[in-house]
Amino acid sequence: MLETVRQYALEHLREAGDEETTRTRHLERCVLLAEQAFPELAGPQQGLWLRRLDEDRDNLLAAIAWSGSGDARASSGLRLVYALRPYWINRGLLTLGHQVTIAVLGWPALRSRTIERCRALFGAGQLCFFSGRDAEARTCLTESLEIARELGRSDVVARALQPLGMACLGEGDLGAARAYLEEALALAREQGDLRELAGALNSVAMLRRMEGRLTDAEAMYRHTVEAARTVGNQESIAIGLLNLAIVQVLSGRNDEAGPSLLEADAIGRQIGSRPVERSFLEVCAGVAAAVGDFERAALYYGSAEMQREETGLRRDPADEAFLVQAIDAARAALGADAFARIEARGRAAPGALVLEQARIWLAGSALATSR
Protein backbone atom coordinates (compact mmCIF):
# COMPACT_ATOMS: atom_id res chain seq x y z
CA MET A 1 0.00 0.00 0.00
CA LEU A 2 2.76 2.47 0.95
CA GLU A 3 4.60 1.78 -2.31
CA THR A 4 1.39 2.43 -4.26
CA VAL A 5 0.90 5.73 -2.44
CA ARG A 6 4.52 6.68 -3.10
CA GLN A 7 4.20 5.96 -6.82
CA TYR A 8 0.98 7.96 -6.99
CA ALA A 9 2.65 10.93 -5.29
CA LEU A 10 5.60 10.80 -7.70
CA GLU A 11 3.30 10.70 -10.71
CA HIS A 12 1.40 13.69 -9.34
CA LEU A 13 4.65 15.64 -8.85
CA ARG A 14 5.79 14.72 -12.35
CA GLU A 15 2.56 15.91 -13.89
CA ALA A 16 2.77 19.18 -11.96
CA GLY A 17 6.38 19.73 -13.05
CA ASP A 18 7.59 19.70 -9.43
CA GLU A 19 9.37 16.35 -9.31
CA GLU A 20 12.95 17.61 -9.63
CA THR A 21 12.60 20.39 -7.05
CA THR A 22 10.74 18.24 -4.54
CA ARG A 23 12.97 15.17 -4.84
CA THR A 24 16.13 17.28 -4.65
CA ARG A 25 14.87 18.84 -1.43
CA HIS A 26 14.08 15.34 -0.19
CA LEU A 27 17.65 14.28 -1.05
CA GLU A 28 19.07 17.24 0.86
CA ARG A 29 16.94 16.35 3.88
CA CYS A 30 18.12 12.74 3.78
CA VAL A 31 21.79 13.76 3.52
CA LEU A 32 21.29 16.07 6.50
CA LEU A 33 19.64 13.27 8.50
CA ALA A 34 22.33 10.70 7.68
CA GLU A 35 25.19 13.09 8.44
CA GLN A 36 23.52 14.15 11.67
CA ALA A 37 23.13 10.49 12.63
CA PHE A 38 26.69 9.49 11.67
CA PRO A 39 28.54 10.68 14.80
CA GLU A 40 25.64 9.60 16.99
CA LEU A 41 26.01 6.01 15.74
CA ALA A 42 29.28 5.89 17.67
CA GLY A 43 27.92 7.55 20.80
CA PRO A 44 25.64 6.93 23.79
CA GLN A 45 22.47 7.65 21.75
CA GLN A 46 23.36 5.00 19.16
CA GLY A 47 20.21 2.94 19.69
CA LEU A 48 17.90 5.93 19.29
CA TRP A 49 19.52 7.00 16.01
CA LEU A 50 19.55 3.48 14.60
CA ARG A 51 15.81 3.26 15.15
CA ARG A 52 15.33 6.65 13.51
CA LEU A 53 17.21 5.48 10.43
CA ASP A 54 15.14 2.28 10.43
CA GLU A 55 12.02 4.41 10.10
CA ASP A 56 13.51 6.38 7.19
CA ARG A 57 15.21 3.49 5.35
CA ASP A 58 12.93 3.63 2.31
CA ASN A 59 13.32 7.41 2.10
CA LEU A 60 17.10 7.09 2.29
CA LEU A 61 17.20 4.50 -0.49
CA ALA A 62 14.95 6.66 -2.67
CA ALA A 63 17.26 9.63 -2.06
CA ILE A 64 20.33 7.60 -3.06
CA ALA A 65 18.60 6.58 -6.29
CA TRP A 66 17.64 10.19 -7.06
CA SER A 67 21.19 11.44 -6.49
CA GLY A 68 22.22 9.43 -9.56
CA SER A 69 19.74 11.18 -11.83
CA GLY A 70 21.95 14.20 -12.50
CA ASP A 71 25.59 15.25 -12.21
CA ALA A 72 24.74 18.16 -9.90
CA ARG A 73 23.30 15.76 -7.32
CA ALA A 74 25.83 12.95 -7.64
CA SER A 75 28.20 14.08 -4.87
CA SER A 76 25.28 14.02 -2.44
CA GLY A 77 25.03 10.30 -3.17
CA LEU A 78 28.65 9.81 -2.06
CA ARG A 79 27.99 11.72 1.15
CA LEU A 80 24.86 9.71 1.82
CA VAL A 81 26.31 6.22 1.31
CA TYR A 82 29.34 7.06 3.46
CA ALA A 83 27.22 8.39 6.32
CA LEU A 84 25.02 5.27 6.24
CA ARG A 85 27.93 2.81 6.42
CA PRO A 86 27.71 2.11 10.19
CA TYR A 87 23.95 1.70 9.90
CA TRP A 88 24.23 -1.07 7.28
CA ILE A 89 26.81 -2.91 9.38
CA ASN A 90 24.92 -2.63 12.65
CA ARG A 91 21.66 -3.83 11.11
CA GLY A 92 23.29 -6.70 9.22
CA LEU A 93 22.31 -5.17 5.86
CA LEU A 94 25.70 -5.66 4.24
CA THR A 95 24.46 -6.76 0.83
CA LEU A 96 22.12 -3.79 0.49
CA GLY A 97 24.73 -1.33 1.76
CA HIS A 98 27.38 -2.72 -0.58
CA GLN A 99 25.06 -2.63 -3.59
CA VAL A 100 24.09 1.00 -3.20
CA THR A 101 27.63 2.14 -2.35
CA ILE A 102 29.20 0.42 -5.36
CA ALA A 103 26.43 1.76 -7.60
CA VAL A 104 27.11 5.35 -6.52
CA LEU A 105 30.89 4.96 -6.89
CA GLY A 106 30.34 3.78 -10.47
CA TRP A 107 28.57 6.93 -11.66
CA PRO A 108 30.65 8.72 -14.35
CA ALA A 109 30.36 12.12 -12.66
CA LEU A 110 32.14 10.83 -9.54
CA ARG A 111 35.52 9.71 -10.91
CA SER A 112 37.46 12.66 -9.44
CA ARG A 113 39.69 11.77 -6.48
CA THR A 114 37.84 13.89 -3.94
CA ILE A 115 37.42 13.44 -0.21
CA GLU A 116 33.83 12.34 -0.84
CA ARG A 117 34.98 9.54 -3.15
CA CYS A 118 37.73 8.63 -0.69
CA ARG A 119 35.20 8.21 2.12
CA ALA A 120 32.73 6.26 0.00
CA LEU A 121 35.52 3.88 -1.07
CA PHE A 122 36.34 3.41 2.60
CA GLY A 123 32.70 2.54 3.25
CA ALA A 124 32.62 0.08 0.35
CA GLY A 125 35.84 -1.53 1.54
CA GLN A 126 34.62 -1.94 5.08
CA LEU A 127 31.34 -3.47 3.91
CA CYS A 128 33.33 -5.87 1.72
CA PHE A 129 35.54 -6.85 4.64
CA PHE A 130 32.58 -7.56 6.91
CA SER A 131 31.08 -9.65 4.08
CA GLY A 132 34.25 -11.75 3.75
CA ARG A 133 35.28 -10.31 0.35
CA ASP A 134 38.84 -9.51 1.37
CA ALA A 135 40.31 -9.00 -2.11
CA GLU A 136 37.60 -6.51 -3.09
CA ALA A 137 37.92 -4.81 0.30
CA ARG A 138 41.65 -4.44 -0.20
CA THR A 139 41.14 -2.87 -3.65
CA CYS A 140 38.62 -0.29 -2.40
CA LEU A 141 40.57 0.53 0.75
CA THR A 142 43.90 0.84 -1.06
CA GLU A 143 42.40 3.46 -3.40
CA SER A 144 40.78 5.22 -0.44
CA LEU A 145 44.13 5.30 1.38
CA GLU A 146 45.94 6.63 -1.71
CA ILE A 147 43.44 9.48 -2.11
CA ALA A 148 43.61 10.33 1.60
CA ARG A 149 47.41 10.54 1.42
CA GLU A 150 47.21 12.69 -1.75
CA LEU A 151 44.83 15.09 0.01
CA GLY A 152 46.95 15.21 3.17
CA ARG A 153 44.07 13.93 5.30
CA SER A 154 45.88 12.07 8.08
CA ASP A 155 42.59 11.52 9.94
CA VAL A 156 41.16 9.65 6.96
CA VAL A 157 44.46 7.81 6.47
CA ALA A 158 44.23 6.50 10.05
CA ARG A 159 40.65 5.39 9.47
CA ALA A 160 41.39 3.56 6.20
CA LEU A 161 44.43 1.73 7.57
CA GLN A 162 42.38 -0.29 10.08
CA PRO A 163 40.04 -2.22 7.75
CA LEU A 164 42.81 -2.44 5.14
CA GLY A 165 45.00 -4.19 7.68
CA MET A 166 42.12 -6.50 8.61
CA ALA A 167 41.50 -7.36 4.94
CA CYS A 168 45.19 -8.25 4.59
CA LEU A 169 44.85 -10.41 7.69
CA GLY A 170 41.87 -12.13 6.08
CA GLU A 171 44.00 -12.92 3.03
CA GLY A 172 46.78 -14.31 5.22
CA ASP A 173 49.19 -11.44 4.47
CA LEU A 174 50.40 -10.96 8.03
CA GLY A 175 53.30 -8.70 7.08
CA ALA A 176 51.09 -6.14 5.33
CA ALA A 177 48.45 -6.45 8.06
CA ARG A 178 51.00 -5.72 10.77
CA ALA A 179 52.38 -2.68 8.93
CA TYR A 180 48.96 -1.14 8.26
CA LEU A 181 47.52 -1.82 11.72
CA GLU A 182 50.54 -0.56 13.63
CA GLU A 183 50.60 2.62 11.51
CA ALA A 184 46.88 3.06 12.26
CA LEU A 185 47.53 2.73 15.99
CA ALA A 186 50.45 5.19 15.89
CA LEU A 187 48.35 7.78 14.00
CA ALA A 188 45.38 7.37 16.34
CA ARG A 189 47.62 7.96 19.34
CA GLU A 190 49.26 10.94 17.66
CA GLN A 191 45.89 12.51 16.78
CA GLY A 192 44.33 11.86 20.19
CA ASP A 193 41.07 10.62 18.63
CA LEU A 194 39.70 8.15 21.18
CA ARG A 195 37.14 6.68 18.76
CA GLU A 196 39.87 5.85 16.27
CA LEU A 197 42.16 4.73 19.09
CA ALA A 198 39.56 2.23 20.31
CA GLY A 199 39.24 0.76 16.82
CA ALA A 200 42.99 0.64 16.23
CA LEU A 201 43.68 -0.99 19.59
CA ASN A 202 41.03 -3.61 18.92
CA SER A 203 42.50 -4.39 15.49
CA VAL A 204 46.11 -4.68 16.70
CA ALA A 205 44.93 -6.80 19.63
CA MET A 206 43.36 -9.19 17.13
CA LEU A 207 46.71 -9.50 15.39
CA ARG A 208 48.39 -10.17 18.75
CA ARG A 209 45.88 -12.96 19.42
CA MET A 210 46.77 -14.60 16.12
CA GLU A 211 50.44 -14.30 17.05
CA GLY A 212 49.73 -16.06 20.37
CA ARG A 213 50.57 -12.96 22.43
CA LEU A 214 47.54 -13.19 24.70
CA THR A 215 48.87 -10.96 27.50
CA ASP A 216 49.49 -8.12 25.05
CA ALA A 217 46.10 -8.71 23.41
CA GLU A 218 44.28 -8.60 26.74
CA ALA A 219 45.92 -5.32 27.73
CA MET A 220 44.93 -3.79 24.38
CA TYR A 221 41.33 -4.99 24.68
CA ARG A 222 41.09 -3.43 28.13
CA HIS A 223 42.38 -0.15 26.70
CA THR A 224 39.86 -0.50 23.85
CA VAL A 225 36.99 -0.73 26.33
CA GLU A 226 38.36 2.16 28.38
CA ALA A 227 38.68 4.46 25.34
CA ALA A 228 35.23 3.47 24.07
CA ARG A 229 33.67 4.14 27.47
CA THR A 230 35.24 7.59 27.54
CA VAL A 231 33.56 8.61 24.27
CA GLY A 232 30.37 6.62 24.89
CA ASN A 233 30.78 4.34 21.85
CA GLN A 234 28.46 1.56 22.95
CA GLU A 235 29.16 -0.90 20.15
CA SER A 236 32.92 -0.55 20.56
CA ILE A 237 32.55 -1.22 24.29
CA ALA A 238 30.60 -4.40 23.52
CA ILE A 239 33.06 -5.57 20.87
CA GLY A 240 35.99 -4.97 23.20
CA LEU A 241 34.27 -6.95 25.97
CA LEU A 242 33.51 -9.85 23.62
CA ASN A 243 37.14 -10.00 22.54
CA LEU A 244 38.28 -9.74 26.15
CA ALA A 245 36.07 -12.73 26.98
CA ILE A 246 37.74 -14.75 24.21
CA VAL A 247 41.20 -14.01 25.64
CA GLN A 248 39.97 -14.97 29.10
CA VAL A 249 38.77 -18.33 27.76
CA LEU A 250 41.98 -18.91 25.80
CA SER A 251 43.90 -18.16 29.02
CA GLY A 252 41.87 -20.74 30.97
CA ARG A 253 39.97 -18.12 33.02
CA ASN A 254 36.47 -19.15 32.00
CA ASP A 255 34.85 -17.73 35.15
CA GLU A 256 36.00 -14.23 34.16
CA ALA A 257 34.42 -14.49 30.71
CA GLY A 258 30.84 -14.56 32.03
CA PRO A 259 30.65 -10.95 33.30
CA SER A 260 32.35 -9.64 30.15
CA LEU A 261 29.85 -11.48 27.97
CA LEU A 262 26.79 -10.44 29.95
CA GLU A 263 27.75 -6.76 29.83
CA ALA A 264 28.44 -6.97 26.09
CA ASP A 265 25.06 -8.64 25.55
CA ALA A 266 23.23 -5.99 27.58
CA ILE A 267 24.78 -3.27 25.42
CA GLY A 268 23.98 -5.18 22.23
CA ARG A 269 20.34 -5.50 23.25
CA GLN A 270 20.12 -1.82 24.13
CA ILE A 271 21.35 -0.65 20.73
CA GLY A 272 19.93 -3.52 18.67
CA SER A 273 23.30 -4.61 17.26
CA ARG A 274 23.18 -7.72 15.05
CA PRO A 275 27.00 -8.14 15.06
CA VAL A 276 27.12 -8.08 18.86
CA GLU A 277 24.18 -10.47 19.13
CA ARG A 278 25.78 -13.08 16.88
CA SER A 279 29.26 -12.70 18.37
CA PHE A 280 27.79 -13.14 21.86
CA LEU A 281 26.42 -16.56 20.86
CA GLU A 282 29.69 -17.55 19.21
CA VAL A 283 31.74 -16.72 22.29
CA CYS A 284 29.16 -18.50 24.47
CA ALA A 285 29.68 -21.57 22.27
CA GLY A 286 33.42 -21.27 22.88
CA VAL A 287 32.92 -20.93 26.64
CA ALA A 288 30.60 -23.95 26.70
CA ALA A 289 33.17 -26.06 24.87
CA ALA A 290 35.90 -24.87 27.23
CA VAL A 291 33.97 -26.10 30.29
CA GLY A 292 33.01 -29.38 28.64
CA ASP A 293 29.36 -28.57 27.92
CA PHE A 294 29.59 -29.71 24.32
CA GLU A 295 25.86 -30.05 23.62
CA ARG A 296 25.37 -26.42 24.61
CA ALA A 297 28.31 -25.42 22.43
CA ALA A 298 26.73 -27.15 19.42
CA LEU A 299 23.33 -25.54 20.09
CA TYR A 300 24.72 -22.00 20.35
CA TYR A 301 26.91 -22.56 17.31
CA GLY A 302 23.90 -23.60 15.24
CA SER A 303 21.98 -20.46 16.19
CA ALA A 304 24.99 -18.23 15.51
CA GLU A 305 25.54 -19.86 12.12
CA MET A 306 21.93 -19.19 11.15
CA GLN A 307 22.40 -15.51 12.04
CA ARG A 308 25.66 -15.37 10.09
CA GLU A 309 23.94 -16.68 6.99
CA GLU A 310 21.00 -14.29 7.41
CA THR A 311 23.12 -11.16 7.80
CA GLY A 312 26.17 -12.00 5.68
CA LEU A 313 28.44 -10.84 8.51
CA ARG A 314 31.71 -12.77 8.46
CA ARG A 315 33.88 -13.67 11.41
CA ASP A 316 37.28 -12.05 11.48
CA PRO A 317 40.26 -14.43 11.24
CA ALA A 318 41.09 -14.45 14.96
CA ASP A 319 37.49 -15.17 15.97
CA GLU A 320 37.27 -17.87 13.30
CA ALA A 321 40.34 -19.60 14.75
CA PHE A 322 38.87 -19.44 18.28
CA LEU A 323 35.51 -20.83 17.23
CA VAL A 324 36.89 -23.57 14.96
CA GLN A 325 39.01 -24.92 17.81
CA ALA A 326 36.01 -24.96 20.17
CA ILE A 327 33.62 -26.52 17.67
CA ASP A 328 36.14 -29.15 16.57
CA ALA A 329 36.43 -30.19 20.23
CA ALA A 330 32.65 -30.36 20.60
CA ARG A 331 32.24 -32.37 17.39
CA ALA A 332 34.95 -34.82 18.46
CA ALA A 333 33.40 -35.27 21.91
CA LEU A 334 29.81 -35.73 20.70
CA GLY A 335 30.46 -37.51 17.43
CA ALA A 336 29.70 -35.98 14.05
CA ASP A 337 26.10 -37.22 13.86
CA ALA A 338 25.09 -36.09 17.34
CA PHE A 339 26.78 -32.74 16.84
CA ALA A 340 24.94 -32.21 13.55
CA ARG A 341 21.57 -32.99 15.17
CA ILE A 342 22.12 -30.50 17.99
CA GLU A 343 23.48 -27.86 15.62
CA ALA A 344 20.32 -28.29 13.52
CA ARG A 345 18.20 -27.70 16.63
CA GLY A 346 20.07 -24.47 17.23
CA ARG A 347 19.48 -23.38 13.66
CA ALA A 348 15.76 -24.16 13.88
CA ALA A 349 15.13 -22.57 17.27
CA PRO A 350 14.02 -18.91 17.47
CA GLY A 351 17.14 -16.81 17.86
CA ALA A 352 15.65 -14.80 20.73
CA LEU A 353 14.97 -18.01 22.66
CA VAL A 354 18.54 -19.28 22.29
CA LEU A 355 19.92 -15.89 23.32
CA GLU A 356 17.78 -15.88 26.46
CA GLN A 357 18.90 -19.42 27.31
CA ALA A 358 22.53 -18.33 26.95
CA ARG A 359 21.96 -15.36 29.27
CA ILE A 360 20.36 -17.55 31.93
CA TRP A 361 23.16 -20.09 31.65
CA LEU A 362 25.90 -17.48 31.98
CA ALA A 363 24.21 -15.75 34.90
CA GLY A 364 23.72 -19.01 36.81
CA SER A 365 26.92 -20.86 35.96
CA ALA A 366 30.19 -20.82 37.87
CA LEU A 367 31.97 -21.59 34.57
CA ALA A 368 34.65 -23.54 36.38
CA THR A 369 37.26 -24.83 33.97
CA SER A 370 37.24 -28.52 33.24
CA ARG A 371 40.74 -28.54 31.76
Describe this structure in words.
The N and C termini lie far apart (59 Å). The protein folds into three domains: 23-38 and 50-111, no CATH class; 112-239, Serine Threonine Protein Phosphatase 5, Tetratricopeptide repeat (Alpha Horseshoe); 252-371, no CATH class. α2 (19-40) runs parallel beside α5 (71-83), α5 (71-83) runs antiparallel to α7 and α17 (294-311) packs across α18. It has 20 helices and no strands. Mean pLDDT is 91; it is low at 1-10. The chain is globular and about 65 Å long. The protein is an all-alpha fold and 371 residues long. It has helices spanning 2-16, 19-40, 46-55, 57-67, 71-83, 85-90, 94-105, 115-130, 134-150, 154-170, 174-191, 194-210, 214-231, 234-250, 254-271, 274-290, 294-311, 317-334, 336-348, 351-364.
Summarize the structure.
The chain is mostly helical.
